[in-house]
Task: inverse folding
């Protein structure tokens, strides 16, 4: 019978797992927060561009969830757990710029972009930091950055002259 190695792929180099967790965990938490606050914006947007922004914000949410899933599962694939409980997300992320209550679409776009820029900064730190540790984890961060910046453009284009 073939013997299967059940230890994580990078058990021989714990630095890879530790660095991936160090740099990808803030990305996971930031994206989970963006997903929750993006829904808040999706529900409370008001004004002339309601339907466009309402629907666009749902794509921001689903892309944030997909990115969080990829980053979290990379950490777990390397043998470490992820703590993305709601209390942890709240404690370790910047409070959202999205307000409570109905908000006009143009102000709300600025608020969501403010939130996204905080996540993008963490993603950039992950790309830079992972360069010397693990190119596979870095590749996930690069993909997340591409997706976030595309969504940022889709939002920003409503305001651009
Ligand atoms: Fe909805």
Result:
């Amino acid at each position: 019978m073939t013997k299967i190695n059940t230890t994580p792929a990078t058990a021989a180099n714990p630095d890879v797992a530790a660095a991936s967790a160090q740099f990808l965990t803030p990305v996971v938490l930031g994206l989970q927060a963006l997903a929750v606050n993006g829904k808040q914006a999706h529900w409370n947007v008001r004004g002339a561009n309601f339907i466009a922004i309402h629907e666009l914000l749902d794509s921001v949410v689903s892309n944030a969830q997909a990115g969080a899933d990829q980053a979290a599962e990379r950490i777990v694939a390397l043998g470490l757990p992820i703590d993305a409980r709601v209390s942890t997300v709240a404690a370790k992320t910047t409070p959202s710029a999205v307000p409570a209550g109905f908000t006009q679409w143009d102000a709300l776009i600025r608020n969501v972009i403010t939130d996204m820029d905080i996540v993008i900064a963490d993603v950039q730190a992950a790309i830079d930091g992972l360069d010397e540790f693990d190119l596979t984890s870095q590749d996930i961060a690069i993909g997340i950055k591409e997706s976030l910046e595309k969504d940022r453009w889709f939002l920003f284009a409503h305001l651009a002259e």
In short: Strands lie at 45-46, 103-104.
